[in-house]
From TrEMBL:
<feature type="transmembrane region" description="Helical">
    <location>
        <begin position="90"/>
        <end position="109"/>
    </location>
</feature>
<feature type="transmembrane region" description="Helical">
    <location>
        <begin position="233"/>
        <end position="251"/>
    </location>
</feature>
<keyword id="KW-1133">Transmembrane helix</keyword>
<feature type="transmembrane region" description="Helical">
    <location>
        <begin position="36"/>
        <end position="54"/>
    </location>
</feature>
<keyword id="KW-0812">Transmembrane</keyword>
<protein>
    <submittedName>
        <fullName>Putative cystine transporter YijE</fullName>
    </submittedName>
</protein>
<feature type="transmembrane region" description="Helical">
    <location>
        <begin position="116"/>
        <end position="134"/>
    </location>
</feature>
<dbReference type="InterPro" id="IPR037185">
    <property type="entry name" value="EmrE-like"/>
</dbReference>
<keyword id="KW-0472">Membrane</keyword>
<feature type="signal peptide">
    <location>
        <begin position="1"/>
        <end position="15"/>
    </location>
</feature>
<feature type="transmembrane region" description="Helical">
    <location>
        <begin position="257"/>
        <end position="276"/>
    </location>
</feature>
<dbReference type="InterPro" id="IPR000620">
    <property type="entry name" value="EamA_dom"/>
</dbReference>
<dbReference type="Pfam" id="PF00892">
    <property type="entry name" value="EamA"/>
</dbReference>
<feature type="transmembrane region" description="Helical">
    <location>
        <begin position="140"/>
        <end position="162"/>
    </location>
</feature>
<keyword id="KW-0732">Signal</keyword>
<dbReference type="GO" id="GO:0016020">
    <property type="term" value="C:membrane"/>
</dbReference>
<feature type="domain" description="EamA">
    <location>
        <begin position="146"/>
        <end position="272"/>
    </location>
</feature>
Amino acid sequence: MRLFSLTLLTMTAFAANSLLNRAGLAEGAIGPAGFAAIRVVSGAVMLWVLMVLGQRAAPKRPAPDWISAGALATYLLGFSFAYVALDAGLGALVLFAIVQVTMFAGAVRAGDRIPVLRWGGMAVSMLGLAYLIWPTESVQLSMLPLILMTAAAIGWGIYSLIGRRAVEPLKATAWNFIYATPIVLVVTLPFVWGETLSTPGILLAVTSGAITSGLGYALWYRVLPQLGASTGALVQLSVPVIAMLAGVILLGETVGLREVTASILVLGGIAIGLIVRK
């Protein structure tokens, strides 16, 4: 029950990131470059403060893990720029569908034994996602946001796979944010000057960075070693459903029969995949 509660809290934080990012961009309160830059800086500051408070001294700097930092930076950048043209729920669906594929591939490569029912659960969930994003007259997705969200998903999948071996989740997440900060700032700097940067937009980005990203990702590194790669990939498919529901309530986004059917398939796939977990 403790693991379930922590995992649910983490998934809610992930969904909140989609809502906060989309809310800032949809209302024109902030641009994608500014959101990504403020998000990574505020996350790094929050986690640094928590490290100092926990150790009651300036923490010793470890050797940079540039793969983790680069994967995190790729996720943050692709995520922000993709949400210029994607709704919160739909963006999360695309993101975590590809995250699931990335993490399952990593689990297979690492020699993890994945039960048949978990493969079946993934297939059912992916069927729901495919049904949702299949182009129709009412669902037309441009290529650039999909490419950007795909890059973000691969980055997050790699970041999560590395997190399976995290011994000190808070410390690992903090240094990943700190080392990802210069990467994100260098990439976003040319774009920030021409963007809107209002107080509400800054507050949304700070909230996303310090709370739902910084603390949420530290919690993710805390529960991921107990879940394993394939289960961790599967449970993340609940995020789009949470984001879609919250998007309807908070952002006024619309949901039809297609979205409801896809959500049922996604959640059903998760349930099937988790049957094998004691």
